[in-house]
Amino acid sequence: MNAKRTQSDSAEPLRHDIRLLGRLLGEVIEECEGKRVFDTIETLRRTAVKFRREGDDADSKLLEQRVKRLQGNDPNSVARAFSYFLHLANIAEDRDQNRRQRARALTDGTAARGSLREAVLTLGRNGVGVARIRRLLADACVMPVLTAHPTEVQRKSTLDVHREIATALTQREGPITPEELTELDAALLGRVATLWQTRMLRYTRLTVADEIENALSYYRSTFLQVIPRLYGDLSKLLNRESTKPFAAPPPPLEPFLRMGSWIGGDRDGNPNVDAATLERALLRQATVLFEHYLQEVHALGAELSITTLLIAADPELLALADSSGDDSPHRSDEPYRRALVGIYARLAATAQALTGQNLARRSTVAAPPYHAPEELSADLAIIAASLAAHHGAPIGKLRLAGLQQSVAVFGFHLATVDLRQSSDVHERALAELFERAGTQHNGKPLAYLTLTEEERVALLRAELAQARPLASPWIAYGEDTTRELAVLRAAAAGRARYGKQAVRQTIVSHTETLSDLLEVMVLQKEAGLIAPAGHDIAADDGLMVVPLFETIPDLQRGADIMAAWLDLPEIRQRVKQAQSGAQEVMLGYSDSNKDGGFLTSNWSLYQAERALVDVFSARNVRLRLFHGRGGSVGRGGGSSFDAILAQPPGTVAGQIRLTEQGEVIQSKYKDAEVGRWHLELLVAATLESSLAPRAEATSAEDAHMAHHGPAMSLMSDTAQRTYRGLVYDTPGFAEYFFAATPITEIAGLNIGSRPASRKKGQRIEDLRAIPWGFSWAQCRLMLTGWYGMGSAIESYLETGAPDAPRSRRARLAQLRDMARDWPAFRTLLSNMEMVLAKSDLAIAARYAQLVPQRALRDRIFGAISAEHARTLSMLKLLTQRELLADNPTLQDSLRERFAYIDPLNYLQIDLIRRHRAAQKNPNPEVDERVQRAIHLTINGIAAGLRNSG
């Protein structure tokens, strides 16, 4: 009873916020749409809530009937109402997360799991001191990479209002007067009214330029603020002396945590990305960054009003002030302000030189631009040193220290933009270059595409050693070749302009052979990014070629390809001299899942990582894994903290990059405090995973693999057969999928610049993995996060394997041990459990009714239902409890959410039925209204399920 009461008490602030926002939304709807519409929405809400609380099928049927009776504009109003309620609930939950973390720190002073403080304390208990953490960070790379993959259904306009609502909720928590509370609630009502009167959907498809601007909004609201703070907090943990009131703040930490982006450079399957979009991305990033720097320096000048009439200053600071060009008599005794006038002028000149824009907020003196961020850092260091030497250390900690850290992290580029393209495109471009150059092979004109792999490797290595160019300015090439060379030349120009951190990697999708990587090296040589083999290699020379292993066969071949790559002398030299001894490998979660199913994808990724560790260790090369994770569990989603800790030993080692995609970006980073927490989780997990006792972890992992690896492999084989048997081998499955999910309607939703399918038509093979998973989430099946697991576990329990425990009871005990003790398997089951908790077979069955052929519908949905029941049964058998019984907070949250998601699902089904029927007898006006309502339901369901993309 006490535990239950404590849980209830802790949940009360969240419930209060949700009730408040729900009430305000209701008031806005009644005012704007009238009482009839409000009553219609309220009736549906109460019916859905009653069904979820009591589970009476009669309520479910009543809800379905009431949804079907909606006519005119009512479906749109209903969809918007439930969608916006879920948006508001998300805001309240995010604020509650912040509230709980603060409450824990205030009440018992303990650090939350996943915090930097807890990570440092945990490492200390394991004998890892501050000096060792510092050594790791000196060479570490932790980088979230924002992508524009199309699962973000919310507009920037609504996200901006979300931030204002979150701010108002936070302000309500403080000690305020009744009058102030009234004003805040009036402001909240105004924000909610703004939401209701703002168009939820985009009427035109996003352009790459739109995606760039959307991403940059997160830098303004979150990253530029919280990343320097995170560094500051970590610096204090690693240097206790700096916390003394007048102790000089330590110098900025080496920039181990940086931001990355694919937006503007990811060409794989997106014809809208080219050299111009890359140039625009780099330009807009620099513009936002210099606007921030100028604002910070301006504010710093207002703060540092220190006069030499009262306190001395260093000679270096006085010299900097004298060289500033500021001769105002009002500041003659204020050297810090005079110095900052000069810094501001140089920053403005730098911004003008790099962006072609005058970004200064006020007139400035004539000054030369900074040639590199290090010059700006040096000037700021002079100010910091003078303050520290003359009793001004507390002043320097106010704003200056954060600005210094920002310059170290963001440079003049803000974020590293990756290039990405399919190996097929590189291959075709090289083939044309060789052909048009008249290259000979065995005395005949070279036909590159007909060469064997061995012949390609030999040819490409020889070409890399050639000083003469292969491409000619006098020859007009095809579109692919012209585009690829232009992008690489734009990358070279961007690196020269903004610094080499601006573009560092080029990722090769569909890497299947060694030649796929060498082709990119040749293209880099042609674009002037790298010198021919044999020439001196400078640090950071050229772009690191990063293979992306995506399908199950690619993952299985990955270690052999990387061994061959690292064994090439010219590549080994490049890795050592230009890449600081590190080589990156990207692993694809979405495509491997779509290819082999949930279990096989995870197990193949795990085995690939272990094999890569062995290859890299044997060659003394630092491995950096780049995890192509999406939001949903089927795309590598789930807790990033747990996922990092569950990696095989040696796979992190201070080096990790991971994608942040679609709706996950807004979920994690639209709120500064929530965003800071997610970044802290990422850094803390990297520290703990990298510095955990290696011998102990390796020994435990080897034991798990020896005892449980064969069982995992056997289950993986069964799961893959089960999954592929359904998806690729069942006649009519594609027809079922396109009818029983909103995939066609999702393809028409303007949520990204990238097409949903690589080719026209209805083939599962051509469909992109992201809309594939997104569609299954919309119909509440989440098939990508569990299908095949039930059959795999059941088969192992019943038949075992040659080296498995003999009895079923012993095999069950083995699987339970794995679920309890092996982080990899425990995390796998935890993620699957969350997915299953969000699935709903009753709702999915209603989507199946959209399939016109009854026999096809019954056959395929019957197989899905049977596997779902089997998976639930096996999971409960292993965990020995009901779903989420160990996480009542999440259980309660989902139960409340379902009452608002269910009506959207019922409405979406009915609208899809109407839309598809209307296509036979078109009425453009009615169909457009129905289609818009469908898109509104997609928005709401995605918001309600959160990690569904």
TrEMBL record:
Cross-referenced PROSITE patterns: PEPCASE_1, PEPCASE_2
InterPro entries: PEP_COase (IPR021135), PEP_COase_bac/pln-type (IPR022805), PEP_COase_Lys_AS (IPR018129), PEPCASE_His_AS (IPR033129), Pyrv/PenolPyrv_kinase-like_dom (IPR015813)
Active-site residue list: 149, 594
Swiss-Prot/TrEMBL catalytic activity: oxaloacetate + phosphate = phosphoenolpyruvate + hydrogencarbonate
Cofactor(s) of this protein: Mg(2+)
SUPFAM superfamilies: Phosphoenolpyruvate/pyruvate domain (SSF51621)
Molecular function via GO: phosphoenolpyruvate carboxylase activity
EC number(s) reported in the record: 4.1.1.31
Keywords recorded for this protein, A-Z: Carbon dioxide fixation, Lyase, Magnesium
EC top class named in words: lyase
Function: Forms oxaloacetate, a four-carbon dicarboxylic acid source for the tricarboxylic acid cycle.
NCBIfam families the UniProt entry points to: PRK00009.1
Assembly description: Homotetramer.
Family from the record: Belongs to the PEPCase type 1 family.
Official protein name in the record: Phosphoenolpyruvate carboxylase
